[in-house]
Amino acid sequence: MIATNATPSSSDAARSGRGALVDAWAPSSSFWLDRKERRTWAMLVAVVTLTLVAVWLNVRFNLRNNRFFDAVQKHDLAAFWKQIGVFCALATVYIVAAVYRQYLQQTPIIRWRTACHRRPAASVPSQQSGVTAAGPSNSPPQRI
Q1: Residue 83 burial by CB count (10 A; 0-12/13-18/19+): exposed, middle or buried?
Q2: Which of 25, 69, 96, 135 has the fewest CB atoms within 10 Å, measured from its CB?
Q3: What is the DSSP-derived secondary structure letter of residue 131?
Q4: Nearest Cα residue to 98 out of 66, 143, 58
Q5: How do the pLDDT tens digits run along the chain, 144 residues long?
């Protein structure tokens, strides 16, 4: 008796994953490769950098917590107030970085949507849009 493997192999899964990436890249490549969108690449790099800064700040918060609770346990008032100041500085930097990162994440999305709306309707295949050269199709969803 010959046993067959009904589950797809890992190479099939890798090919389908690459196919999904190719399908996603096809409509977006004109946006990301456009010379006008170099600023968007810079924003993407800034978002990654700010994410790494947030990780570093979280590590610093954990170190500060250790020192803070050591000062509380030892009843060291000078170290306590120093750690309060360190916390205020870290919190300020963290909040500024988080707000700026949020802005930099949303700006490319707005630019992407604007670029999609600027693209001429002629580049959209008529089968997908429901609009032909003769006008809109008669399918029920298109009449609503």
Answers
A1: buried
A2: 135
A3: E
A4: 58
A5: 555 555 555 555 555 667 777 777 776 666 777 777 778 888 889 999 999 999 999 999 999 999 999 999 999 999 999 999 999 999 999 999 999 999 999 988 888 777 777 765 545 555 555 555 555 555 555 555
What pTM was computed for the model? 0.59
HEC letters along 46-82:
HHHHHHHHHHHHHHHHHHHHHHHHHHHHHCCHHHHHH
Q: Tokens 């170290």 identify what position?
A: 79
Q: Residue 26: in which H helix or E strand, if any?
A: helix 10-32
Query: What 3-state DSSP class applies to 122?
Result: helix
Using CA atoms, how far residue 98 sits from 24, 83, 89, 138, in Å, is: 28, 22, 14, 49
Helix/strand/coil for 136:
strand
- Nearest Cα residue to 86 out of 68, 71, 73, 69: 68
The CA distance from 50 to 100, in Å, is 8
Q: Report the pLDDT value the prediction gives residue 14, as an integer from 0 to 100.
A: 57
Residues 6+ apart with CB under 8 A from 28: 112
